[in-house]
Amino acid sequence: MKEHRNWFLWAGFLVAVAGFASYFLFFARFPSTRDIPWLNLLFFLVAALLLIVGLRRAFARESSYRGRVSGPILAVLSTAILMFFCFGVFVESRELPPSTDAPRVGQKAPPFSLPDTSGREESLSELLSSPIADGSPAGHTPKGVLLVFYRGYW
Amino acid sequence: MDAPDVTKSLCQRRGYTYTFLSDPNAEVIRRYDVLHPGAGMKGHDIARPAEFLVDSSGTVRWVNLTNDFRVRARPEQMIQAVKALQ
């Protein structure tokens, strides 16, 4: 009996790979899909369904589908990819130092003086007191400064 | 952590007009206790994502220290904190 190619298995595996890769390559750019990776988890759900259908076809008693060896292998690989993904987005990304000495609300912000993009030193007190150019003759002094520690990386 | 010339080309490429300072030795990062040792590319020290709103008297009024480095303050959150300063 000629056995049919079991494309469900391969589709499931490819969707799992796409679920992993597309997060880091694309969906992580948008907070709505990055903060809670619901879209990529959906990819894995679809992958699981495809693999389940594929495995059932391969192992059905009078099966005419291939995949009794490739099926379990692809399923294990896909599971490993999912676990890798979950580790990255639910465990590793929370591994942060305690930062117990970071300034809290009500404390004085530690002073600093650092160079800007043109190499000019700017201090916190300068930033807080230098008038903002807003068209009026003297400008107006800032109500505050928002300090963003820009971590340009994962 | 990047040097001023690196951040300058980033700002030019992206059109950022706000003040962008460089802390290549992580001095201020350490002063604010937001150092994340070894977490950067090739094991370099970098900062954990953090935002501090300081009012005109130099007092901290809002802190955002995320517990997940994928989840950072969104612009709307920062703008809301700034508005609450009035």
Helical segment tally of chain B? 3
Low-confidence stretches of chain B: none
Q: Give average pLDDT of chain B, whole number.
A: 89
**Intertermini distance of chain B:** 32 Å
Helix content of chain A: 40-55%
- Protein structure class of chain B: alpha+beta
User: Which pair has the most extensive contact?
Assistant: A-B, 49 and 57 residues
Class by SSE composition of chain A: mainly alpha
Apparent shape of chain B: globular
Task: Give the mean pLDDT of chain A.
Answer: 90
Number of strands of chain A: 3
Mass-distribution shape of chain A: elongated
Sheet bearing the most strands of chain A, described? 2 strands, antiparallel
Low-confidence stretches of chain A: none
Number of helices of chain A: 5
Give the terminus-to-terminus CA distance of chain A: 52 Å
Count of strand segments of chain B: 4
Tell me about this structure.
The complex is a heterodimer of chains A (154) and B (86). With 154 residues, chain A is mainly alpha-helical. Chain A contains five helices and three strands. In chain A, helix 1 packs antiparallel against helix 3 and helix 3 runs antiparallel to helix 4. Chain B is an alpha+beta fold and 86 residues long. Chain B folds into two domains: 48 residues, no CATH class; 38 residues. Helices cover 29% and strands 19% of the residues of chain B. Chain B is built from three helices and four strands. The longest helix of chain B has 11 residues. The N and C termini of chain B lie far apart (32 Å). At the A-B interface, helix 5 and strand 3 of A face helix 1, helix 2, strand 1, strand 2 and strand 3 of B. Strand 3 of chain A pairs antiparallel with strand 3 of chain B, so a sheet runs across the interface.
